[in-house]
From TrEMBL:
It comes from Candidatus Giovannonibacteria bacterium RIFCSPHIGHO2_02_43_13. L-serine binds at residues 228, 259, 282, 380. The keyword ATP-binding applies. It is found in: Cytoplasm. Its EC number is 6.1.1.11. InterPro entries: aa-tRNA-synt_IIb, aa-tRNA-synth_II, aa-tRNA-synth_II/BPL/LPL, Ser-tRNA-ligase_type_1, Ser-tRNA-synth_1_N, SerRS_1_N_sf, tRNA-bd_arm. One of its GO terms (molecular function) is serine-tRNA ligase activity. This is Serine--tRNA ligase. One of its GO terms (biological process) is seryl-tRNA aminoacylation. Pathway: Aminoacyl-tRNA biosynthesis; selenocysteinyl-tRNA(Sec) biosynthesis; L-seryl-tRNA(Sec) from L-serine and tRNA(Sec): step 1/1. Keywords: Aminoacyl-tRNA synthetase, ATP-binding, Cytoplasm, Ligase, Nucleotide-binding, Protein biosynthesis. Transmembrane segments: none annotated.
Length: 420
RNA sequence: GGAGGCGUGGCUGAGUGGUUGAAAGCAGCACACUGCUAAUGUGUUAACCGCCAAAAGCGGUUCGGAGGUUCGAAUCCUCCCGCCUCCGCCA
């Protein structure tokens, strides 16, 4: 959510932003409704003031005088009720429109429709061009995965990780947690079941014309299964006013993650690259409302994940996401993409974005800065998502005999030098 | 799942229809005073919305949330959400 005062003063900027992000939102309509809304507020406030005075007078009157007075006040109340109804209707539309206004992308964000137009910023590691086996074959060879029983039990995209597949996953989470805790992140295990307001608050659910809800599971209790711990960790501080000296708040939150993948039935249908249920350690940060501060932490978040990729010795690149690949609230986003030899390309493993105060406005997360209350800034980035990372990990570390080398940094958590 | 109870300001906690945005206490802040590291006194301290360039100021809203009854609701009614206790079940 943006500040309506900011929108009023920067309508063109926001129209440009919506265009760059390929979001629909009718700013002119919003401004017209806002105008109407403010006029109605002024009118009903005044009517209510008069009505309040008259009501207080009632208490002092007696008998006939009182009856007559009450009769008149009743009539005025009726008019006030009509005005209030009108205002509520207008505010309903206003609120919906406000939720659909996208955040303004940073000027450095390139134009573009989709991830194919993201810009490569840097690469790390030496990529393998010879294929070897793909991760599915490797996992079968080492008895790490069962997708047949996975779909028998869990349905489409279901899977079981087993033996070294299970142990390797655990080792990856542990390495990640240790790395982040060392850097001052507080370890959390966060709920995946979340109430709707958290999805709206983080911008996963936008206004009425953003069909993003399709991709989120909803339970029969109207609780949702979140696709990331970002949602619950941001909800953690909803409606709070914090002290400035508490910042920055650094969280490393582990949680199961659920995605319906409604728009991608045809994509990555084999294997465990794209699944409905996975596990992730997410980095989440709340900091002071300062652009430079956000930028600094954004780089830091990205660096943390790069370090993890480097410890795991997986070649990767960092891309700057184009406008069309940004979410409603994101100002700027970097994806880290690990090298997947069998596809001969980089594929997304991490996604780092910052939001300025877009999320904290929706979630009402503030802090005290002297005499002022300000909305905090928020950021997040993947630290480790399994099982996807296994695809890159296994393919990049395979030997000609199909055995898998375990990088040194991971051996502390996975007590073998080799699989197979 | 069954039975009961409860949700008031940063915290504790009064308040069952008429100046109660809300007593009192604690905490915080400011000033005063005392020479001893703290006590005492006085004052002060909520958020949001609108008018305003802004501050001040003025008006409005807010006692878990949404509706309703009433001239008037923290107080009465309905639904929802959350929390607590006991029983049941259970990792």
């Amino acid at each position: 959510m943006l500040d309506i005062k900011f929108i009023r003063g920067n309508a063109d900027l926001i129209k440009e932003a919506a265009k760059k992000k390929h979001f629909n939102c009718d700013i002119d309509r919003l401004l017209a409704i806002d105008e109407k809304r403010r006029a109605l507020i002024a009118e009903s406030d005044e009517m209510r003031r008069v009505h309040k005075e008259a009501s207080e007078l009632t208490a002092m009157l007696q008998g006939k005088e009182r009856e007559g007075h009450v009769l008149k006040v009743k009539g005025d109340k009726d008019k006030l009720s009509h005005k209030e109804f009108e205002l509520r209707t207008v505010e309903g539309e206003f609120d919906e429109l406000m939720l659909s206004v996208p955040n303004v992308p940073d000027p450095s964000v390139p134009e573009g429709n989709s991830d194919t137009e993201n810009q490569e910023l840097r690469t790390w590691g030496k990529i393998k061009v010879e294929h070897g086996k793909n991760y599915m074959n490797l996992m079968q060879a080492h008895d790490m995965l069962d997708t047949e029983r996975g779909s028998k039990v869990s349905g489409f995209r279901g899977y079981f990780l087993k033996n070294d597949g299970a142990l390797l996953s655990m080792a990856l989470w542990n390495l990640t947690m240790e790395h982040l805790v060392k850097k001052g992140f507080r370890p959390f295990m966060a709920p995946a079941l979340v109430r709707r307001e958290n999805l709206v608050g983080t911008g996963w659910f936008g206004g009425p014309n953003n069909p993003t809800e399709e991709d989120v599971y909803k339970t029969q209790d109207d609780i949702y299964l979140s696709g990331t711990a970002e949602v619950s960790m941001m909800g953690y501080h909803r409606d709070e006013i914090m002290n400035m000296d508490e910042f920055p708040k650094l969280y490393a939150a582990f949680s199961p993650c659920y995605r319906r993948e409604a728009g991608s039935y045809g994509k990555d249908t084999k294997g465990i690259f794209r699944v409905h249920e996975f596990f992730k350690v997410e980095q989440v940060i709340l900091c002071k409302a300062d652009h430079q501060e956000s930028v600094r932490w954004h780089e830091e978040l990205t660096k943390n994940s790069e370090e993890i990729m480097q410890m795991l010795e997986i070649p990767y690149r960092v891309v700057l996401n184009c406008g069309g690949d940004l979410g409603l609230g994101q100002v700027k986003k970097y994806d880290i993409e690990g090298w997947l030899p069998s596809e001969n390309k980089y594929r997304e493993t991490h996604s780092a974005s910052y939001f300025h105060d877009f999320q904290t406005r929706r979630l009402n997360i503030k802090y005290r800065d002297g005499d002022n209350l300000k909305f905090a800034h928020s950021l997040n980035n993947t630290a480790m998502a399994t099982p996807r990372i296994l695809c890159m990990f296994l393919e990049n570390h395979q030997n000609p005999d199909s055995s898998i080398n375990i990088p040194k940094a991971l051996q502390k958590f996975f007590e073998k030098e080799k699989i197979g």
